[in-house]
From TrEMBL:
Main location: membrane
InterPro entries with a match to the protein in the record: BphY/WalK/GraS-like, HATPase_C_sf, HATPase_dom, His_kinase_dom, HisK_dim/P_dom, HisK_dim/P_sf, PAC, PAS
Residues annotated as domain Histidine kinase: 304-518
Protein name: histidine kinase
NCBIfam families in alphabetical order: sensory_box (TIGR00229)
Annotated GO MF terms: ATP binding; phosphorelay response regulator activity; phosphorelay sensor kinase activity; protein kinase activator activity
Organism of derivation: Corallococcus sicarius
SUPFAM superfamilies linked to this entry: ATPase domain of HSP90 chaperone/DNA topoisomerase II/histidine kinase, Homodimeric domain of signal transducing histidine kinase, PYP-like sensor domain (PAS domain)
Length: 529
């Protein structure tokens, strides 16, 4: 580590103007912590997961310390990380090339450090300007000369903030008011997104999202998450002025004054070039592995489907044969015919789920039939039907009617799939709760059960195609892993979202959030002729 620090310091003093006048301790003190975090990450069994757990802290100390050195600009801070990346690879590869995985972890770690340092640098400089404003308010009753001096200091601070933001070209840095209207726009935004300052400022930042993202209300959801959790960070498709799309890594941070939300800052990086390089590198080595895994999943899935489809077919066949072989027992023919119908309906539901899961895997949206109905009434109907099979353990909580335009059949399948999932993997005999609620423009549905809960890793992969959790794979519970895929497909077809929250040994909650009117989002089934 000492050699990396010495080499990096020498280059920084040569190439970064502010580093030429900084004392050695001030220049180097924040880097050992970051290098130690990177070394610890590389030593973990799964470095990428370990990096994800540490990414919030990497580079933040460096960004805070650089913000306190007035000679530094944001571009110089980013340049220091570019030098660090060069030195890391030069020193670590002297004895031989690093593995592809270690190179990826180092690249991602430095990238996370750049983003966090830039965000922290911006936040600290913004706090400096805010501190100046508070000082002006407190000094209002003092001498006029002090007021003028404070005003001049504030003006200088704001000017420094404007200069360093406008001087960054590789990152889009802009601010929003609490409603999401753009209030500032740096040159990096102009270069990356194509809109001039005059075209961007005063407009809602939803114009920067794709049509699909706007339909899902991604802009509003991202601001809500940032305000609730203190930050939003994610990758996704964004739209330029010319209509083209690009892959972006975005960080949204709320800004407060006297405890009140006054807006948001947003840092955006264009990942298009990086994504193309990674795809080209990974394509050849991942193709063979993908084929192998897909073949194993397909073979296992076909075996399960063959077994499960045979069960209702066999039951229906046996009931029909009894009717044929015992024509004289007419008093029991209705009973056997009902069994035939019940098993054929079960088979039809299984085939429908398979077909819908296949459509979703191909990237096609589900078609639905919309009508106006009360979601609370539907939840009670499903609870009563399930109680005849699984016992009187289903509860419905609601403040009253929650009416809207949705697919009645689709939401019935959502409730049934989530409830059956809760029966299979929840605590035996414990209550299963359907909770229905409404906000101003949205409706919410939750299915809550007690049990072991899910790990964060399981939650992340839960809605994947043909995915089954670890508990399901270890146990004897039947299933194909398509139920939650269909749940997500129905929710998205109605313009909604689905998610899960779970705590080990405390239970699991699946939630579905829907617009009150799904007609603008849904692809309706064609009318029968």
């Amino acid at each position: 580590m000492a050699r990396i620090l010495q080499t990096w310091e020498a280059r920084a003093r040569q190439q970064v103007p502010a580093a030429q006048v900084a004392a050695s301790p001030a220049l180097r003190d924040s880097l050992p912590d970051m290098l130690a975090e990177v070394a610890t990450t590389l030593a973990q069994p799964v470095p990428q997961q370990a990096l994800g757990a540490r990414e919030h802290a990497l580079g933040r100390k460096h960004g805070r310390e650089r913000a306190m050195l007035s000679a530094y600009s944001l571009e110089q801070v980013i340049h220091e990380y570019q030098l660090l990346r060069q030195v890391l690879f030069e020193v670590l590869e002297e004895e031989g090339p690093l593995s592809a995985n270690d190179r990826d972890v180092l690249l991602d770690a430095v990238q996370v450090g750049v983003r966090n340092a830039a965000s922290e640098f911006s936040r600290q400089r913004g706090m400096e300007a805010e501190s100046g404003r508070k000082a002006l308010e407190e000094a209002h009753t003092q001498l006029e000369q002090q007021v003028q001096e404070r005003t001049a200091a504030l003006t200088a601070s704001e000017e420094r903030f404007r200069i360093f933001v406008e001087g960054v070209h590789d990152y889009a840095l802009f601010t929003l008011d609490p409603e999401g209207v753009i209030t500032s726009w740096n040159f990096g935004c102009v270069r990356m997104k194509g809109y001039t300052v005059q075209e961007a400022v005063g407009h809602h930042f939803r114009m920067l999202y794709t049509e699909e993202g706007r339909a899902r209300r991604d802009p509003e959801d991202h601001l809500l998450i940032a305000a609730r959790e203190g930050r939003f960070r994610g990758e996704g498709m964004r739209r330029r002025k010319d209509g083209s799309n690009f892959v972006a890594d975005a960080l949204i941070t709320p800004m407060y004054r006297d405890g009140l939300l006054i807006g948001f800052s947003k840092v955006v990086q264009d990942l298009t070039e990086r994504s193309m390089l990674l795809r080209e590198r990974d394509l050849s080595r991942s193709t063979v592995e993908n084929f192998r895994v897909e073949r194993e999943v397909r073979e296992r899935f076909i075996a399960m489907v063959s077994h499960d489809l045979r069960t209702p077919l066999t039951a229906a066949k046996m009931s029909a044969q009894i009717i044929l072989r015992r024509p004289e027992a007419q008093e029991r023919h209705l009973e056997y015919a009902a069994r035939v119908v019940t098993n054929l309906e079960r088979l039809d539901r299984m085939v429908t789920d398979l077909l819908d899961a296949s459509r979703l895997r191909e990237g096609r949206a589900l078609t639905v039939e919309l009508s106006h109905f009360d979601l609370t009434t539907l939840a009670r109907e499903v609870a009563e039907e399930l109680a005849t099979v699984h016992g009187d353990r289903f509860l419905v909580h609601s403040d009253g009617k929650v009416e809207g335009h949705w697919s009645r059949d689709g939401l019935r399948r959502v409730l049934e799939n989530l409830a059956v999932n809760a029966v299979k993997y929840g605590e035996t005999g414990s209550p299963i709760t359907f909770s229905v609620h409404r906000s101003e423009h949205r409706a919410g549905l939750r299915v809550i059960n007690l049990g072991k809960g899910l790990t964060p890793e399981e939650q992340g992969a839960l809605f994947g195609h043909f995915h089954r959790g670890q508990e399901a794979e270890r146990g004897a519970q039947p299933g194909w892993g398509v139920g939650l895929t269909v749940v997500r497909g129905v929710a998205e077809a109605l313009g909604g979202i689905v998610g899960v929250t779970s705590t080990p040994n405390s239970g699991t909650t699946f939630f579905v959030d829907l617009p009150l009117d799904s007609r603008p989002f849904a692809k309706e089934k064609p009318e029968q002729e």
